[in-house]
Write a structure and sequence with these properties.
54 strands; eight-stranded mixed sheet; 11 helices; mainly beta; five-stranded antiparallel sheet
Length: 862
């Protein structure tokens, strides 16, 4: 008994020591230092094979080679391509390709065999995966090589001036040049390669290849050489009939001559209608400006009766849209000086045109408005559809089938039946707001959104604050397919379409088509907790796949809709690329930055607070790394507008921020960081920011973790303005940083920005939210510069010397005023920089300047 008694304490000590050692080794972490930042990488998701078995992704590093990875989602086998880029997988999931410098790397996904093709500038898979096409440049001339991946046979096309692959990748159109002749050829990429010559000429050149949506035909230009004219004029061709007999058409001379008497056809983008009956192209006027007037003086003339500031004078160099009716040969102008911005309807039998000159000057009407007309492209008949419609994204769209026009007006969704000319209001009777309830800018509240239509124009799809609705164009059916309002969960369609748009300036008037017979992947956000997830809608039912306290970004889905690839992340956990199937089974393809477990790291928390008026707001609060309860920490408040949505954003530690803030860096340095929401009252942008930010800060202080005497404030651009204003009203903040701020709002209101646009709209219709006249005290009271004597907070100012958004004089004015008053301030002017810093050395310098400023004033008492 005695001997056992003596041994027991020894055993106990050994057991306790071993336990302590295990516990200690599991918890050994160290503080993150700037020298550690280069350990971090940023992930960029790549492609998912159509069968869902292969996933590619790229990890980008600060000072190491970026690396492309290809991973088998079933076996976990991984291929590594240092410096790889432009990853592609064939539609049959048999081949993978990528570029490393100027070399194409091919990988057979069934056998693992690799091939290299040096001096390949670009590449593309074609013929449903049967072929790979490589582009090479030799002695300034471009050539193509085409390789049959099954037979291993190759074919070379020398002197390929231009090439274009049909949408189904089964046909390749090429412009080739042999000696003094130029030819257009088509190559059929089926089991065997077949070549057809379309046209050849020794007098001119061909260019501008453009396929239709189905791959049945393509159009191109012939440049007409005329030594007597400085204009580069063109002729249009349309080619079809590849399976039987080639048909080549060009506009008849009687129509072409009539059009080109006063105009000419420049090289532009060609667009072929879905039924292959019309081609849209641009024309330009032959008129030139009066040379004598130009020689007399280059003076600009501004008049008080101008409709815009600066005045916009018509330019004869501007192109306008016309259409060629292929079968009849007729050429018609669609767009003119008054009716602009042509948007073809889904069947391209009609087009929307806008009249933009009715509502100028803009300030008289409180926004940018247009009158929307529908134009019959066959008859030229033109009818007014919507008067005084807001010119903004997604406000007016055309149905994919060409039957209807959809528009949002007077806070409701409407459709216009093109055939019957009937308007139908869909949402007024639902007693649910379809406009943004949180919108607090000066202009009209925008709609929650219209992602597109179902097939055959059966339903218009729209969003309310939480749910997705299907609306039949005739107004008889109104179906809500989700039920998010009860739990305050916002549902949105997650699919990302690749719809073909005629022009970039169609301003999202062309929309996407969704197949409701198949399943829809939905992205969800709990608006109270900010949890995110994905659900699948199918046959009228919604099934939740995943929901987490994380940010989730949809990336891609497999062709059979059985696998979905997405990126998940939070502030605490580095991004992971995740594959999830329709049974909600997840597999992590890769989790980035595993080294993070070796360092102390912060956490994020959602806070809720109220303004003095009782408005409920949120904020994202980030804790210091190695946070310990009972210690009061310094805090940096970064402001702009609504920032709580960044709660789950992962931030790689880095010096390369364009505005100087990196939350991971500052939490590692022992700071709390707060991103509060700001709600605004018209005519009071400064006071609105002041009240909301103070309320958020007080909420955090009440938690007992932040030292009231060690709080800093910073912002950039509009946030820089808010920062400059707030420190004229309160001494709550012991240091401030204002980047590219507007400080003299009267002067800024009356200025033209670096893009040649008046700043007035930013105040009266947008972010500054000031409707009061610029010469009144109600306007001027929002200006930091007129209250500069009240600033007692040490402030660091910075600006880009070539800032086109906010004139740098805003920063220099405030600095001179502070200097004259003997206030604590410092101004950084970065040469050759715009609104956001781009030079890596300048970014690093700004970070250390800001960190040094806050350390000086917020940590000096420690």
């Amino acid at each position: 008994m005695k001997s056992k008694t003596k041994i027991a304490p020894i055993l106990l000590i050994l057991i306790m020591s071993l336990g302590l050692m295990v516990k200690t080794s599991a918890q050994v972490k160290r503080r993150l230092q700037p020298a550690d930042y280069n350990l971090w990488s940023t992930i960029y998701p790549g492609v998912l094979s159509h069968d869902g078995k292969w996933v590619s992704y790229t990890l980008n590093y600060t000072d190491k080679k970026d690396t492309l990875f290809l991973k088998n989602a079933i076996t976990n086998y991984k291929y590594i391509f240092p410096s790889g880029s432009n990853a592609t997988i064939t539609k049959d999931s048999k081949w993978f390709g990528c570029k490393i410098a100027d070399t194409l790397k091919l990988l057979n996904l069934e056998t693992g065999k690799r091939q290299s093709f040096p001096k390949t500038r670009e590449y593309l898979f074609a013929g449903q995966g049967r072929y790979v096409i490589g582009v090479q440049n030799t002695d300034g001339k471009q050539s193509l090589w085409i390789k049959n991946l099954k037979s291993d046979k190759s074919y070379t096309i020398q002197n390929a001036n231009e090439f274009s692959l049909s949408p189904d990748t089964g046909l390749l159109a090429v412009v080739t040049q042999i000696k003094n002749s130029t030819a257009v050829k088509v190559f059929t990429l089926q089991d065997s390669l077949q070549e057809q010559e379309i046209i050849t000429t020794s007098a001119n050149t061909f260019m501008g290849l453009a396929w239709d949506k189905t791959g049945k035909g393509f159009a191109f230009f012939e440049e007409i050489r005329n030594n007597e004219s400085p204009l580069k004029e063109h002729k249009i061709y349309y080619c079809t009939g590849f399976e039987k007999t080639i048909i080549l058409k060009t506009p008849p001379s009687q129509y072409l001559d009539l059009l080109t008497q006063t105009s000419y056809i420049p090289l532009s983008k060609l667009f072929i209608s879905a039924d292959n009956e019309r081609i849209f192209f641009d024309i330009k006027s032959r008129k030139t400006c009066n040379e004598n007037a130009t020689k007399q003086s280059d003076v600009q003339i501004w008049n008080t009766d101008d409709t815009t500031v600066p005045p916009q004078h018509p330019s004869y160099e501007e192109a306008t849209c016309s259409v060629w009716q292929i079968n009849s040969g007729e050429l018609k102008k669609v767009e003119d000086a008054q009716f602009t911005n042509v948007v073809p309807t889904g069947d391209q039998k009609n087009a929307l045109v806008f009249r933009t000159d009715e509502y100028l000057p803009r300030y008289k009407y409180g926004g940018e408005y247009i009158d929307v007309y529908i134009k019959n492209l066959l008859t030229g008949e033109q009818l007014l559809v919507v008067k005084k419609q807001l010119m903004d994204m997604g406000v007016t769209t055309v149905s994919p089938g060409g039957k209807s026009i959809c528009y949002f007006k007077d806070n409701n969704w409407w459709t216009y039946n093109i055939a019957s000319q009937q308007h139908t209001c869909h949402t007024a009777s639902l007693n649910i707001p379809f406009y943004d309830l949180q919108h607090d800018e000066s202009g009209i509240p925008p709609a929650y959104g219209n992602p597109g239509w179902s097939e055959k124009d059966q339903y218009l799809i729209v969003y309310d604050e939480y749910d997705i609705w299907l609306l039949s164009p005739d107004g008889t059916t109104k179906k809500k397919i989700t039920d998010g309002r009860k739990k305050k969960v916002r549902y949105r369609i997650a699919e990302e379409g690749n719809e073909y748009n005629y022009k970039i300036d169609t301003f999202y008037f062309l929309t996407q088509t969704f197949n409701l017979e198949s399943s829809l992947l939905l992205h969800t956000v709990n608006t109270e907790s900010l949890k995110e997830g994905f659900s699948v809608w199918s046959n009228g039912n919604v099934k939740t796949l995943v929901e987490k306290n994380k940010k989730m970004i949809f990336v891609e889905k497999s062709q059979d809709n059985k696998n979905y690839l997405f990126l998940e992340k939070s502030f605490e956990t580095s991004p992971a690329l995740v594959l999830i199937n329709s049974r909600a089974q997840e597999k992590i393809i890769v989790r980035t930055n595993e080294q993070q477990k070796n360092f102390y790291w912060g956490k994020s928390e959602l806070i809720k607070y109220k303004t003095p008026e009782g408005k409920e707001l949120k904020g994202a609060l980030f804790y210091p790394a190695n946070y310990q309860s009972g210690i009061k920490y310094p805090m940096i408040v970064h402001i702009y507008s609504r920032r709580s949505g960044e709660l789950h954003e992962y931030v790689e530690p880095s010096f390369q921020s364009g505005n100087g803030l990196n939350i991971a860096n500052f939490t590692a340095e022992g700071y709390f960081v707060l991103l509060p929401d700001i709600a605004y009252t018209i005519n009071e942008p400064g006071d609105s920011a002041l009240k909301c930010v103070k309320a958020a800060v007080e909420k955090v202080i009440d938690g007992g973790n932040v030292d009231r005497e060690k709080i800093g404030l910073m912002g950039h651009s509009f946030g820089g303005y808010e920062t400059a204003y707030i420190i004229t009203q309160t001494n709550m903040f012991k240091a401030a940083v204002a980047g590219a701020p507007v400080t003299d709002i009267v002067s800024a209101y009356l200025m033209v920005d670096g893009n040649g646009q008046s700043n007035i709209w930013r105040y009266e219709d947008q972010q500054f939210r000031i409707k009061s006249p610029f010469y009144t005290n109600d306007f001027a009271k929002n200006s930091p510069i007129v209250q500069v004597e009240r600033i007692s907070t040490p402030v660091l100012l910075w600006t880009g010397e070539e800032d086109h958004m906010v004139n740098p004089t805003n920063s220099t004015k405030l600095q001179i005023a502070l200097w004259r008053l003997g206030k604590k301030s410092r101004l950084l002017v970065y040469p050759k920089e715009d609104h956001v810093l781009a030079n890596p050395k300048n970014k690093e310098n700004l970070y250390f300047e800001i960190k040094g400023w806050f350390d000086l004033y917020l940590k000096k008492l420690q």
